[in-house]
Amino acid sequence: MSEKFDLVVIGGGSGGVRAARVSAQLGAKVAIVEEYRYGGTCVIRGCVPKKLFVYASRFGDLFDVAPSFGWTVDASFDWPTLLANKDKEIDRLERIYETLLDGSGVTIFKARAKVTGPNAVELSTGEQLEAERILIATGGAPFKPDIEGSDLGITSNEAFHLQSLPRTILIEGGGYIAVEFATIFAGLGVDTTLVYRRDRILRGFDHDVRDGLEDALRERGVRFRYGYHISKLRKDGEGVCVSFSHGEEATFDAVMFATGRHPNTGDLGLDTAGVQLDQTGAVVVDEYSRSSVPSIYAVGDVTGRAALTPVAIREGAAFAQTVYNNTPTTVPYHLIPTAVFSEPEIGTVGMSEEDAAERYRSIDVYLTRFRPMMNTLSDRQEKMMLKLITETDTGRILGCHILGPGAGEMIQLVAIPLGMGGTMADFNHTIAVHPTAAEELVTFKSPSYRVVDGEKCNP
Prior knowledge:
30% of the residues lie in helices and 26% in strands. The protein has 459 residues and is of the alpha/beta class. Strands 1, 2, 3, 4, 5, 6 and 16 form a seven-stranded mixed beta sheet that branches. It has a seven-stranded antiparallel beta sheet with strand order 17-18-21-20-19-22-23, sandwiched between helices. Strands 10-9-8-14 form a four-stranded parallel beta sheet, with helices on one face. Helix 6 links the parallel strand 8 and strand 9. The mean pLDDT is 96. It catalyses: 2 glutathione + NADP(+) = glutathione disulfide + NADPH + H(+). GO terms for molecular function: glutathione-disulfide reductase (NADPH) activity. Its EC number is 1.8.1.7.
């Protein structure tokens, strides 16, 4: 006998949990199935533990400037203490997720699920679930390249559980995960090298952000190797010998692959149900998250649209509103604010200067760099950057990019006026909060330069 539900959600991460809770609150009979731990990648082995590690890595900078404020600091770092406290926090958050689901009336299953038809799900426990609709929210997973010795490398999953901190580490990649873990390890005293097959980190970000972060990481001791990649790994005593694509070899205590993530669609039975996948294995969906099978939907990283936790949450809520509240709801993918928890931190929303210059004949760029106030009593010279990009004719803000302390917090608030079509006049009309770094966003007097037909010129 199979148990019947209006909705069966496969995946207990941020997107799946939000979809399950909202759908149940709207009157649907909902089940959710998770094979590992509720909370998903973000809570269990992603954003949350990563930011806790970032916090830990920042204390070194604070200790460096503390003497300029009159403090004498004698500090040491203990990796096992950080791991133990991180695990306690993750356990607490996991319990909260399950409590919220239970409080919303969602039936919770802890098992692996497989789709056996457009309206049928089989669990690894042998239970059979019948569903009017199925929602795939299984997220993504880091992967290792298909090279000899790849098993000797780690991914972000294993980085959260290392028994000891390595003395040296090589990180392959140039995106969010690579630069964030480079920040973490370097900040904790690990000799850190980043190798990337392209010529610069953070592809797709504004060029001033990319250059500024690289310079700051170099100042923190991170080394960059561009234009090649890892071709082979082999054991070398207690370390790992890396063979690079250009022929060089070097040995590190640890090697980390941070070259992207793949959708978790393997062995889910989606092919049997007729669900269309793209070349990466992501579920192909329409603007309302419906797959090629009318009764099967998908949200979050498994769709390959935008691999960010808040996007998955918004997709989950939009699905519930569309299906169970008769309110067709889409997600504004064109305006996604995001933060990179590197050191210094990045906050960005809207278009980069390069993208804006391609789409608009004339843009104005407002740019400022200055030492954060925290550093002014010391000899630390690292600068903060704030950048606004506007359409020349209308003054509409097209993009905002911040590099420095609190960038993630600031960009969340900047995203609101951008979503409302805010203009430079609106920013200039706003009274500044002094002394803050954010006040620079509302005190620009004139553009730093203009870009017309792709050419930089005076405004």
